[in-house]
Write a structure and sequence with these properties.
Elements lengths: L4 E6 L6 E3 L12 H8 L3 E6 L14 H15 L5 E3 L1
Parallel strand pairs: 2-3, 2-4
Antiparallel strand pairs: 1-3
């Protein structure tokens, strides 16, 4: 599995909220005006998929492969359920 870049912050109660990025965007494209208020009530995780931004590996060629990478990432963090934005 490729090296991942992510930022994890906020209150660690309830379901975490995973932010996925689009096309060539990175976790740094998420506006703190959006993420910070959400982090007041729950854990927020900003995530760069393989080959986008800092992570190594090849960019997943399909939405299904992007989802597989995101699930593997969550599994690595020990997260079985979360809400998703993106």
């Amino acid at each position: 599995m490729a090296l991942r870049a992510f930022r994890r912050f906020g209150k660690s109660s309830g379901l975490p909220l995973l932010f996925l990025q689009h096309f060539t965007g990175t976790l740094d494209n998420w506006d703190p005006a959006v993420t910070d208020p959400l982090a007041a009530d729950r854990e927020v995780i900003l995530f760069d998929n393989a080959g986008i931004g800092r992570p190594s590996g090849d960019v997943p060629p399909t939405i299904a492969r992007m989802a597989e990478h995101a699930l593997a990432f969550l599994d690595g963090l020990g997260i079985g359920r979360c809400d998703i934005v993106g």
